[in-house]
Amino acid sequence: MYQWRKFEFFEEKAAGRGGGGGGGSSSSAAVPAEIAGRVTCCSGGRGRVAVGCDDGTVGLLDRGFRLSYGFQAHAASVLFLQQLKQKNVLVTVGDDDQSSSQSSAICLKVFDLDKVQEEGSSTTAPFCVQILRVFTDQFPQAKITSFMVLEEAPPILLIAIGLDNGFIYCIKGDIARERITRFKLQVEAAPDGSTSLPITGIGFRVEGQAHQLFAVTPSSVSLFSLHVQPPRRQTLDQIGCQTNAVAMSDRMDLIIGRPEAVYFYEVDGRGPCWAFDGEKKFVGWFRGYLLCIIEDQRTHKGTLNVYDLKNRLIAHSMPVGDVSHFVCEWGYIILIMADKKILCIGEKDMESKLDMLFKKNLYTVAINLVQSQQADPASTAEVLRKYGDHLYGKQEYDEAMSQYIHTIGHLEPSYVIQKFLDAKRIYNLTNYLEKLHDRGLASKDHTTLLLNCYTKLKDVEKLNDFIKDEDGIGEIKFDVETAIRVCRAAGYHEHAMFVAKKAGRHELYLKILLEDLGRYDEALQYISGLEANQAGLTVKEYGKILVEHRPAETVEILLRLCTDVGDPTTRRGSNSMHLLMIPSPMDFVNIFVHSPQYLMEFLENYIKAVKDSPAQTEIHNTLLELYISNDLSFPSMSQENGFESHNITEAKGKETANGYKSGTREKANVGKEDTKLAKNIVDRRRKGLALLKSAWTSEMEDPLYDVDLALILCNTHAFKDGLLFLYEKLKLYKEVISCYKQAHDHQGLIACCKKLGDSSQGGDPSLWGDLLKYFGELGEDCSTEVKEVLTYIEKEDVVPPIVVLQTLSKNPCLTLSVVKDYIARKLEQESKLIEEDRKSIDKYQEETELMKREIEDLKTNAKVFQLSKCTACTFTLDLPAVHFMCMHSFHLRCLGDNEKECPECAPEYRSVMEAKQKLEQNARDHDLFFRQLRGSKDGFSVIADYFSKGIVSKTTVPPENGR
C-alpha cells in the first residue's frame, strides 16, 4: 500500500451543511439528545437517516441531524432496520417482550412513514402496516446476525434474515397483506461438524428476473439462486469474514474484508483482490470508492481510508475513533461513533480536486480521475489540454501532441496548430491534422494545411493514403475543392484528378487535364463517357480549349450530344418531348468564338441530321451570318499566316543583317493567301444563297430564319444574290430593280422586269415605267435597251405614249429614231380608236335624239290604239280591254292580277331595273371599286366607266344638322 498516492479528495463537512449544528466543526455534530438509548442500527434513504436504539425507539434525523420525530417501534430493543427506496416504508426487526414463553419475542414490523398517527398530545408515530413473527415452529428461533430487504415490484418484498446457526430465513410477498411465503436456506456446517457457522453477511444481486443471494460465514462465501426451485447453492470460496466487513458494490459484486486483503466476488467466483493490511472493522461502497475502517491491532485506533481502485490512489485517509455504525446519505459518508458523535465526510468538487493535482503536476492522475468519474467531455478535454501544455513547455512535443489529439472535438484546433507551425514540428502538426480529418472536424483551411504539410515533406505515400482509400470507395473526409487546389499548386496533378473524379467533380477533373496537363485526347475520352447532361456542362465550360486543340473531335462529341446519333433507339418523332431534353446546338456557340469555321461545320452537320430542331431559326440565322460575312478565317489559314509571317519576319531580319533585302517570296505568299480567301468567300456565299432558298421554299409560308436579320446581313456585306432573292420573296420588286440599277446591269434589269412585270404571273407592270424612267435619267446612250423596253411597254400597254416621250426626253443621248417607230404605231393605233369612237358617238347621238322625240310625243300627243287582237291570246279584242303605251293590248281577263305591267315588255324592263340597282349597290362597295382600279392596266378607264354609268355622280349628301 505504500506505493499508492494519498490525496485529500474528501473533507469533513461542518454540522451546518452536513451535520446537526449551526456552522461549527464536524466534532460538534452528535445524535440528538432526544434519543436516549444506545444506537443499535441505522439506515439511510429518502433524505433521512433512521436510527434504532436498544430501548425499542426509532428516530428519524433530517439533513441537519435534527430529530424529525421518534416513535416506539418495539418494546425492548430494535435489532435491525432498513428504509426502502421505492416507497416511504421502514422495515424493522426488534425484540418485543412476551408474557408467553411459547412464542418468540422477535418481530418484524412494517411502518408506512407517509401515514403518521397521533399518539397522545405530544408525540407522533407512523402507521404500523404489519407485524410478523420471525420465528415459528417451522423456523426455530436463533440469534439474528444479519438482515436485508430487497424491493421487487412494490408491494412485493424479499426479506433475508441471517442467523448464527447457519440458516437464512426468507420472507417473500406482500408483507402488508400477509400474502407471503417463507423458506429457509442452509449454508454448510462448520468444518469439524459440531456446530454451524453464523451468517456474518448477506447481499442481493439482481440480473433481470434472476434473483441471487450472497451468504458469508467466517469460513465460506456462498451464492444462492433464488429464481429456481428449490434454490440452488453454489460455494464461491472457502474463506469468509467477520461481521460488518461485508458490503455490495454498485456493480452488485460482493465485497468482504479480511485482515490481509479485501476480496470482490462475482457470480462465478472470486474476482479482484486488494491487499490492504489491517483488521477491517467496516467495509462499504460509496460512489465508486471503497470504504474501509481499519483498526490497528496494537493501538486499537481506527483509520478511515477511501480507495479509488480504478486510479489506484487513496482519495482520503483520516483517523477516527470508535465507530459503531456508518451510513451513506445526502452524498456524504456519515460515521456514528460509540459516544454518539457524528462525523460527516463529503467529497470535494471536481474543480478542487483537479486544482490540487495540477499544483503537483499530476496530470496523469487528473486525466484518470475525470475519466473514471465520467466527467463531461469538455472537462476531460480541458485536463488533457493542460497536460499537453505542460508537456509542450517541457519540449516533449510528441507526448504533448498525443494529449492534444484527445481534445479534438472540444478544443479549438487553431490553439494546437499555432503551437506546431514551426517547420521542425511539422510531423506533429501532420499527425494532428490527420486525426482532425479522420473525425470529420476539419475545415477547408485544415485540409489546405495538411496537404501543404505532405507536399513540403514530399511524403507521397501519406498523400496517397489521405487522398486515396485502400478500396477506392470510402467517404471523402475533406473539402474537395481545397484538396484539388493545393495538389494542383504543388504539382500533384494525378492526386488532384483522383479526388475530382471520385467526388464526381467532372469540371475540376477536366480543368486539370486541359489547363495543367494538356491531355486533350484523354479529356475528350472522359467527356464521352459522361452522361449527356454532365457532358454538356463540361463542354460548355472547356469547349474553347478543346476546339482550339482538337476541333474535329470536339465537333463530333457535340454532334452526338445534340443529335443522339450514339443511341438511335432513343430517337423520337418530331412531336416528342425528347427533342426538348437534348442540348441545343445554340448552347455551344460561344465555344467557337475563335473558330467560326468549325462552328459552321458543326451547324451544317447538325441540320443535315436534325430537320425538326426547336432552335432551327437561331441555327439558320447563325449559319447565314457565317456564310455571308467577309472576314471569316480558318485555323489552317491562320496557322499558315502566322507561320509564314514569322518566317518572313525572320527572313527580313537575316536579309537586313546580311546587307540585302528581297520581298519576292513575301509578295507571292500574300497573293496566294488573297486568292484562297477570295475563293473561300465565294464558296461560303454560294452555300448562303442555297441556304436562303432551301429554308424558304415556295411551299413555306414563313422561312426558317429571321428575314429582317437576313436582309441586314446581305445588305451589310453587299451580298447581291441574297438581297435579290429576299426582295423577290417579299414581293419588294422595286427594291429588286434598285439592286440592278446600283449594279448598272441593264440586261439584268430588263430580264428582271420581264420576270416580275408580267401581270399574268402576278407581277407588277409598273416596273416597266420605273425602268423607262431609269433609262431616261441615265445620261448615256442606251438606245438598244430602250427599244427593247418600249416593245414590252407597247405590248403590255402600261405607260401612255405621252409619258414615254416625256420620260425619254430627259436623256440627251437618245435620238428621235429610238421612239419613231413606237410613236408611229401608237399614233396609228390611236387614230383608229378615235375614228371608232367618233362613229360610236354619232350612233349614240342619233339614238338619243330619237328617244327624246318619242318622249316628247308621248307627253304632248294622243296615242291611238288600233290593235284588233289580244297580244296574249290572239283572239279578237273586245271589252273590257287594257292598252299599254308600248302599243300592246290585252283582254282584262288575260292580264290576271298583274294589270299594271305589260307582260311582253316586263322582263326587259325588270332586267334594266335590276342592273340599275346593282350599279347603285356597287357604288357603295368601295373595296370592289379599288380592286378593279388596281387590277386594270388603265385606271382612268375604270373611273370613266363608273361615271358613264352614273354611279359616282349619284352619291347622296347627308342633310346638315340631321335634317
Automatic annotation (TrEMBL):
Domain of life: Eukaryota
Any single Pfam family the record assigns to this protein: VPS11_C
Keyword Zinc-finger annotated: yes
CHCR repeats: 404-555, 573-784
Quaternary structure, from the entry: Core component of at least two putative endosomal tethering complexes, the homotypic fusion and vacuole protein sorting (HOPS) complex and the class C core vacuole/endosome tethering (CORVET) complex.
Family: Belongs to the VPS11 family.
Descriptive protein name: Vacuolar protein sorting-associated protein 11 homolog
Species this chain originates from: Urochloa decumbens
Ranges where the RING-type domain occurs: 870-905
